[in-house]
């Protein structure tokens, strides 16, 4: 029988990664909302993501439901450990979605929906980073149960990861606006993106130096021979992407900065996968330990293989239809 655990690991990992990339830039646009100069620029910023933002969240639903169905033991441990940050993240996403729908219809209270759009985007991003930081830090597990406190997530490293993801998503949002807008908004976004790129690199450095001291498994993975030779391309390629992105932001290229920002996320995601594999609940439960029965994995995979092509098709089609620059007077209503 075919081993389906690696296949499902790739499916879920890819779904989570697609969510981070696609919803990351529209959350980043929301984080940058207070820095816009007037309602016209805010309209352009929102219109740049309005046709695609809700479709981007499909990948979050895919990743969350697949984790429950495919790795039920991991779900049973992770949810009690991260109940509060996950709940606050979802509340942020709801607040942002409501702001999307009501802002363009508001007149007297538009400033409240502007703040809601910013606050929801900021909260959703920060608590996603907190969840990520707790994954890297690991969970207290006793047998098949979470053995820690509901407030274990309130520790320095997860909070640092939350701030780092806010900076990263804001960089994605700024480079998206460089690609999708023109004129003063585009130039302001270029300047913001350069500062945010420096911030992202600083957070990458801090996290990279901190994580080996938190888990001996991570230190052994990166700093023993021959692993050091195998994984050396990760920091080297990251540095090259950062250098290319920096120079692209200083030029008149519109698309390269956004591709570079996505490339940095690709390398960070690769580094995370290298550090945590084969654990789905670091550092106690492996992917194979947490997996459902082979018959369940096979049954779920059949439906997923029918579903995924449709998700790819409408994702590609929405971006294709709404390609090009966003201009005043044309947008979401």
Overview of the molecule:
With 333 residues, the protein is mostly helical. The protein has 15 helices and 4 strands. It has one domain (5-321). Strand 1 (141-142) and strand 2 (145-146) form a beta hairpin. Helix 1 (5-31) runs antiparallel to helix 4 (58-70). It is globular.
Number of domains: 1
Strand order of the largest sheet: 1-2
**Main beta sheet, described?**
2 strands, antiparallel
What structural category characterises the helix and strand content? mainly alpha
Q: Could you give the order of the helices and strands?
A: HHHHHHHEEHHHHHHEEHH
Give the radius of gyration.
Answer: 20 Å
**Envelope shape:** globular
Averaging pLDDT over every residue, what do you get?
Answer: 89
The total strand number stands at 4
Tally of DSSP helical segments? 15
The termini sit apart by: 52 Å
For the structure shown, list the relevant keywords.
333 residues; mainly alpha; two-stranded antiparallel sheet
Give a summary of the structure in a few sentences:
The chain has helices at residues 5-31, 39-49, 53-56, 58-70, 72-81, 83-103, 110-137, 156-180, 183-214, 216-223, 227-231, 233-250, 256-276, 287-290, 294-321, and strands at residues 141-142, 145-146, 279-281, 285-286. With 333 residues, it is mainly α. Strands 1-2 form a two-stranded antiparallel sheet. Strands 3-4 form a two-stranded antiparallel sheet.
């Amino acid at each position: 029988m075919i081993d389906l655990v690696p296949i499902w690991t790739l499916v879920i990992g890819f779904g989570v990664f697609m969510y981070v990339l696609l919803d990351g830039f529209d959350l980043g646009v929301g984080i940058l909302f207070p820095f816009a100069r007037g309602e016209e620029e805010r309209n352009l910023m929102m219109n740049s993501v309005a046709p695609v933002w809700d479709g981007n969240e499909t990948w979050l639903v895919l990743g969350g439901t697949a984790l429950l169905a495919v790795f039920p033991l991991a779900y049973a441990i992770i949810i009690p450990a991260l109940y509060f940050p996950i709940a606050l993240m979802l509340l942020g996403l709801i607040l942002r979605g409501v702001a999307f729908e009501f802002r363009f219809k508001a007149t007297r209270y538009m400033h409240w929906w502007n703040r809601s759009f910013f606050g929801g985007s900021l909260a959703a991003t920060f608590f996603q980073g907190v969840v990520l930081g707790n994954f890297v830090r690991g969970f207290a597990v006793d047998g098949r149960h979470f053995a820690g406190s509901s407030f274990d997530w309130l520790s320095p490293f997860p909070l640092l990861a939350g701030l780092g993801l806010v900076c990263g998503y804001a960089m994605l949002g700024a480079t998206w606006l460089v690609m999708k807008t023109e004129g003063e908004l585009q130039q302001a976004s270029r300047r913001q993106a350069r500062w945010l790129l420096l911030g992202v690199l600083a957070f990458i450095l801090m996290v990279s130096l901190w994580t080996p001291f938190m888990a001996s498994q991570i230190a052994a993975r990166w700093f023993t021979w021959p692993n050091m030779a195998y994984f050396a391309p990760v920091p080297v390629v990251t540095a090259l992407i950062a250098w290319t992105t920096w120079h692209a932001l200083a030029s008149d290229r519109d698309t390269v900065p956004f591709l570079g920002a996505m490339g940095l996320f690709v390398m960070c995601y690769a580094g995370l996968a290298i550090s945590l594999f084969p654990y789905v609940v670091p550092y106690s439960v492996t992917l194979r330990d947490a997996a459902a029965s082979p018959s369940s994995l096979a049954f779920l995979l059949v439906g997923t293989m029918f579903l995924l092509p449709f998700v790819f098709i409408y994702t590609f089609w929405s971006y294709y239809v709404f390609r090009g620059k966003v201009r005043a007077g044309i947008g979401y209503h």
